Amino acid sequence: MNPSAPDWHAAARALRIDGHAFIAGARVAAHDGASFDCRSPIDGRSLAQVARCGAADIDAAVASARRAFDDGRWSHRPPAARKKTLLRFAEAILAAKDELALLETLDMGKPIQQSLAVDVASTARCIAWYAEAADKLYDEIAPTPRSALALVTREAMGVIGAVVPWNYPMIMAAWKLGPALAAGNSVVLKPSEKSPLTALRLAEIAVASGLPEGVFNVIPGFGDEAGEALALHMDVDAIGFTGSTRVGRKMLEYAGRSNLKRVYNELGGKSAFVVFPDFRDIARAAQTVAASMFFNQGESCNAPSRVFVHRKVADEFLAVVAQEAPKYAPGDPLSGHAETGAIVDETQLRTVLGYVDAGHAEGATLRAGGRQVRAETGGFFVEPTVFEGVTNGMRIAREEIFGPVMSVITFETEDEAIAMANDSSYGLQASVWSHDINRAHRVARALKAGTVHVNQYDEDDITVPFGGVKQSGNGRDKSLHAFDKYTELKTTWIRIDAE
């Protein structure tokens, strides 16, 4: 361990966490005084009492956001001015990197070095990137007859409700906040009750960086209370949601029951990782799938949990995967050197172990892992798990597990691989491994997924869109395309009379 690195255990003991909501630029208790105990999945310690917000708190936050939007304190600022404020916000996030990383690790269990290098860094880059884009978006003039001038302008929608999950709390929030704020909207953010702490701190940092009060509000609470109230609110213009397909369906229902607000869902995944025998480095493909699958404890919607391997190379591939899996054995997330950490809570732990049991019951063969470990710590840890002998109809191959469980399925022909990969209700990401350029193009085009990787997995950048097809959702986070979710197009038609 680097002797100059912080003592994260000592920092955790010294940390004082404010669990109040953030409305109109100030920390406030829930309207009825309710709260819930936020506990760390690392060892079960109580981190804070967090405001358990409900409909009255949502009303207050939405009213604050609407006032801020309507009076123009942010929405009427020139794009270049919004850019400067958001760039200060991004710089302040980096200045608070140790605190934010520690909150993220304590709250949802990921290793501290990943919270620093991935979560904090990606959050700051996202905010900065959309800040820079704010004054570089041009409107349009339509090619009308000479007797008219038709302007097509992109305008902020108003109040955006953002509902984000627990697995990447800061990053998912930034993917909503960046384009929504850069476009001039106000935002009410509802973080998961399993990981609300960094969202609350980000709001304070944003206001301290110059974001006007009321423009960014954070309402912690439970989905069937705060989340439902936000999605049903008649004065919310759009919902940006990332989470499960089950809740995504509810978001669409809430829109239909209220004001037909726009709903943009980024939902679950069961991503296919397809390895053909002509790929010349099977070991690299196996190492890549292990690193991608077990990163973040397997709690990633785009995790390559369905691995399709040609029968000719299956033994070689599985031998490497089985060798790699123990390298991702969970350790102490605050140690500074653990590769993976804790499952977010006991409920999710039981879900993951239940799928391990289902794999056994349906006849799959456990090649690696499959057990709860480190139970003596009071935390929730699961070994990286690999099943072979899986068929595409098994539950472990069809349902999103959201834990470190990989299913390996063999195939004989290209058509069979494509058919099995597409035989899923999800379509978030996929990967093709082949050194035959024709096959790589052919299969990439045939796979039904929002992103298809070729001879790599999960290489990524803020400049490219992220999202899925089928029951993996609609709309896209990241890239300039994200502005489409948080703006409306207005046509202004001007008649030009001839002299």
Q: TL;DR?
A:
The protein is α/β, with parallel strands linked by helices and 499 residues long. Helices cover 37% and strands 19% of the residues.
Description:
This protein has 499 residues and is an alpha/beta fold. The chain is 37% helix and 19% strand. It is built from 15 helices and 21 strands. It has helices at 8-14, 55-70, 79-95, 97-108, 112-133, 169-182, 197-208, 223-232, 245-257, 282-294, 314-324, 346-361, 395-398, 414-422, 437-446, and strands at residues 21-23, 26-28, 35-39, 46-51, 140-141, 148-156, 159-163, 186-190, 216-218, 238-242, 262-266, 272-275, 306-310, 365-368, 372-373, 381-382, 385-388, 405-411, 429-433, 451-454, 487-495. It has a seven-stranded mixed β-sheet, sandwiched between helices. Helix 7 links the parallel strand 8 and strand 9 (216-218). The N and C termini lie far apart (80 Å). The mean pLDDT is 97.
